[in-house]
Specification:
Pfam families: ROK. This is ROK family protein. Belongs to the ROK (NagC/XylR) family. The chain is of the alpha/beta class and 418 residues long. It has three domains: 2-84, Arc Repressor Mutant, subunit A; 87-205 and 388-406, Nucleotidyltransferase, domain 5; 217-381, Nucleotidyltransferase, domain 5. It is 45% helix and 20% strand. The strands form four sheets. A five-stranded mixed beta sheet has the order 6-5-4-7-11. Helix 1 (2-32) packs across helix 3 (48-60) and helix 4 (120-145) crosses helix 5. It is globular and about 70 Å long.
Length: 418
């Protein structure tokens, strides 16, 4: 019996080592660019036969392909190996009135993007998830027709998310509670082969900004959504801060005004009631004003706000100053607590960032411990309204990089090259 267990341990160790080496080769090609097999072996300290075997398996899984002959190297030139762009991640971002979808390939290039307006309050959870499933199925099917493979789906939603269970515990601004998002999507999609991952939208947005946005490589950052509500994605030492129950980052519900307005969460004076989009509209427009009409497209609304500000409209300028002050007040608390390298403003905070920044910086300068502020730069998001969708795609691709065997074999190109 003991000999059998020992033999099994050896097999498991060999499988784990194989996966580790497959991951190492694939990550190296993603980071360093095309390389010959001999050069990969030298770079990673592996023997050439092992690298040839690893490259062959990665090619069979559609993750790498043979490219041109390597130039400028001493000795016999070898054919380079490069990352194939056919394996992709699909990310979706669900907002209060829209859904955005983004497909990224393993090379980090955008394959496609999609945007739809949704009346989520009218559709409810069942109708909304049916629309999401239809969109996912359409994108996955279209990718397959183009010869691409969707390795998974990452979905970002605002609210308290139990990622392991795939559930949205509380989505105050969506009006959802205890919604088993992943289970419902899996059922609607007919138990697809690809996995579906659910996360808080701000967490995914923070991942996107760190991967390819305005905070590339930052080990410590805070991402703030700017929408109907305010969410926060916090990365500490390179990892998303999740907390004991996975609910860390619900910064929009910090109480900044104890006797303030009623929030969708049921409490009064939450940060998002002070600095969210409804607060901005209350400051700059009377009830019934066209700019406050829910039917108005967000981009059109933001363009009109900017137009008024640039014309010097006094009420608009006062409103922007009030919202910037509110943003800065809450942000200063977070900067003092987490001491980030970068504070990223997302959503409408980013789009109107130049108009909001003086008030934000004024609050930060007055409220943040000087040493913390000197080490933190404030940036406007590179992807104001698609960061979470991009982050969802990045999460999928990271799972492939961590374990290339997640992608099934049989995806090799005919001939093994471009």
């Amino acid at each position: 019996m003991w000999r059998g267990v020992a033999a099994m341990d050896v097999v498991v160790d060999q499988i784990s080592l194989r996966r580790y080496n497959l991951s190492a080769v694939l990550r190296h090609l993603c980071g360093a660019g095309p390389r010959s097999r001999a050069r990969i072996a030298t770079d990673l300290g592996l023997n050439k036969a092992t690298v040839s075997s690893l490259v062959a398996e990665l090619g069979e899984r559609g993750l790498v392909l043979a490219g041109d002959v390597e130039r400028g190297q001493v000795g016999r030139p070898g054919q380079v190996v490069e990352v194939d762009g056919r394996v992709c991640g699909l990310g979706l971002q669900l907002g209060v009135d829209h859904v955005a979808a983004y497909v990224l390939d393993l090379r980090g290039e955008m394959v496609s993007s999609h945007h739809r307006r949704l009346d989520i309050q009218d559709l409810g959870p069942a109708g909304t998830l049916a629309m999401l499933a239809e969109l996912i199925g359409s994108i996955v099917g279209g990718a397959a027709q183009d010869g691409r493979h969707i390795a998974g789906v990452g979905v970002g939603v605002p609210g308290l998310v139990e990622s392991a269970a795939g559930s949205l515990r509380i989505g105050a601004n969506l009006g959802w509670r205890d919604t088993r998002v992943v289970d419902e999507l899996v059922t609607l999609l007919g138990n697809p082969e690809y996995p579906i991952h659910l996360d808080n939208d701000a967490n995914l947005a923070a991942i996107a900004e760190r991967a390819t946005g305005c905070a590339v490589g930052a080990g410590n950052l805070i991402y703030l959504t700017g929408d109907v509500g305010i969410g926060g994605g916090v990365i500490v030492d390179g990892r998303v801060l999740r907390g004991a129950d996975g609910f860390a980052g619900e910064v929009g519900h910090m109480t900044l005004a104890g006797d303030g307005r009623l929030c969708g969460c049921g409490r009064k004076g939450c940060w998002e009631t002070v600095a969210g989009m409804p607060a901005l509209l209350r400051e700059i427009a009377d009830p019934g004003s066209p700019i406050a009409d829910p039917a108005m497209e967000l981009q059109e609304r933001l363009a009109e706000i900017r137009r008024r500000a640039e014309l010097g409209d006094a009420r608009t300028l006062r409103g922007l100053d009030a919202i910037g002050t509110g943003i800065g007040l809450g942000a200063s608390v977070l900067v003092n607590i987490f001491n980030p390298q970068v504070l990223v403003l997302g959503g409408f905070f980013s789009v109107l960032g130049d108009l909001l920044m003086p008030a934000i910086q004024g609050q930060l300068s007055g409220q943040v411990v000087s040493e913390s502020l000197s080490q933190c730069r404030v940036e406007r998001s590179a992807f104001p309204f698609t960061a979470a969708a991009r982050g969802g795609a990045h999460v999928v691709l990271e799972s492939v990089l961590a374990d290339p065997t997640r992608v099934p074999p049989g995806l090799a190109r005919a001939g093994g090259s471009r």
